[in-house]
Automatic annotation (TrEMBL):
InterPro entries per the UniProt record, alphabetical: Chromo-like_dom_sf, Chromo/chromo_shadow_dom, Chromo_domain, Integrase_cat-core, Retrovirus_Pol_polyprotein, RNaseH-like_sf, RNaseH_sf, SH3_Tf2-1
GO MF, one annotated term: nucleic acid binding
Organism superkingdom: Eukaryota
Biological processes per GO annotation: DNA integration
Organism taxonomic ancestry: Eukaryota, Viridiplantae, Streptophyta, Embryophyta, Tracheophyta
Residues in the signal sequence: none
Gene3D superfamilies per record: 2.40.50.40, Ribonuclease H-like superfamily/Ribonuclease H
Protein name: Integrase catalytic domain-containing protein
PANTHER family xrefs: PROTEIN CBG26694, PROTEIN NYNRIN-LIKE
Residues in Chromo domain copies: 294-330
UniProt organism field: Arundo donax
Integrase catalytic domain segment(s): 1-150
């Protein structure tokens, strides 16, 4: 089960409940009106699905608030119906309805492109079209898989001059529309399949591995706060793999204050490769600090250098008895500890707006 929302109002309806049978692929498209509750959804399922097919043994849904409600869980618990939820941000778990949804949307888009508010009047035809279309996985249509025979499309007799013009126009319009829809849908379905197969890769992780997690824009802010998600990194972490769930999902060790479900599909993860090698813009110029009485005379500049997962403060030191051209970048705490009485530390924290302090960051790629 899944919802299609964000539709314009058509005869008062603005959402569709999609119910698909995993065995025969037979689907029902039920219009809904916002706001709807778990009680209302259960009622329409009874009126449109259960009365025709009986109670299901299991139901696969996403984590919509309707399907997570106590009423929904307790209702199907009484009927011994197993409820299964898809993993976070991986709609393929509920792949049956997620595959039906684009087909239904394409049909309605082609049928009511110029008059979107009439989609409700096409919904019954969309359901009939989908259930009577040949499926390669079934080698037949869902209608035949369910009932054992092909549907009766009706035999149109020859249109004569006695046929009312209104009937003639309606039949001609429906036939032309059906041909156009079949051509467009076939092209779109093939294009989406090719794109999905092109980007599919095999990944596998083990318990204890460090992985980076792909966070969705405008969501999952309890894991990492991003003020400007459009410009933020896509992957955050690393996070440790705690457990493997099934064959394609993993439980991660997220921060304790995270409100996101810790189980993610493997497509949202990628291996974390630590890099401890600091990168400098210029090659460092080595200076023998033991030659003569050299001490830090003045701090010329400051910067932060990433070492592992931390940002280490460094200062550009001008040494006594050496020209500024021989100034070197040194770790602030290391050189301060070696020369605690140097005059440079007096002005290091007053020249450019504050002392040098370490900053701990979360590595992101």
């Amino acid at each position: 089960m899944d919802f299609i929302e964000g539709l314009p109002k058509s005869e008062g309806y603005n959402a569709i409940l999609v119910v698909a049978d995993r065995f025969t692929k037979y689907s029902h498209f039920i219009p809904l009106k916002h706001p709807f509750t778990a009680h209302h959804v259960a009622r329409v399922v009874l009126d449109n699905v259960v009365k025709l097919h009986g109670l299901p043994r299991s139901i696969v849904t996403d984590k919509d608030r309707i399907f997570l409600s106590t009423f929904w869980k307790e209702l199907f618990k009484l009927y011994e119906t197993k409820l299964t939820m898809s993993t976070a941000y991986h709609p393929q778990t509920d792949g049956q309805t997620e595959r039906v949804n684009p087909c239904l949307e394409m049909y309605l888009r082609c049928a009511v492109q110029h008059s979107p508010k009439k989609w409700k009047s096409w919904l019954a035809l969309a359901e009939f079209w989908y259930n009577t279309t040949f499926h390669t996985s079934l080698r037949c249509s869902p209608f035949k898989a369910l009932y054992g025979h092909d549907p009766n499309f009706g035999a149109l007799s020859d249109i004569t001059t006695a046929t009312p013009q209104l009937v003639t126009d309606l039949v001609a319009e429906r036939e032309a529309q059906s041909l156009a829809l079949k051509e467009q849908l076939a092209k779109a379905q093939n294009r989406m399949k090719v794109q999905a197969d092109r980007h599919r890769t095999n990944r596998e992780f083990h318990v204890g591995d460090q992985v980076l997690l792909k966070l969705q824009p405008y969501a999952q802010v309890s894991v990492v706060n991003r003020p400007f998600p459009k410009l933020a990194y896509k992957y955050f972490g690393p996070y440790r793999v705690l457990k493997r769930i099934g064959i394609a999902a993993y439980q991660l060790d997220l921060p304790s204050d995270s409100l996101v479900h810790p189980v993610f599909h493997v497509s949202q993860l990628k291996p974390f490769t630590p890099d401890y090698t600091p990168v400098y813009a210029d090659l460092p110029k080595l200076v023998d600090l033991d030659a003569g009485q050299l001490e830090p005379e003045r701090v010329l500049d400051r910067r932060l250098v990433k070492k592992g997962n931390c940002a280490v403060p460094q200062v550009l030191v001008k040494w006594t008895r050496l020209p500024e051209a021989s100034a070197t970048w040194e770790d602030y705490y290391v050189v301060q500890k070696r020369f605690p009485m140097a005059l440079a530390w007096g002005q290091a924290s007053s020249g450019g707006g504050g002392g040098v302090t370490p900053v701990t960051t979360i590595q992101a790629t």
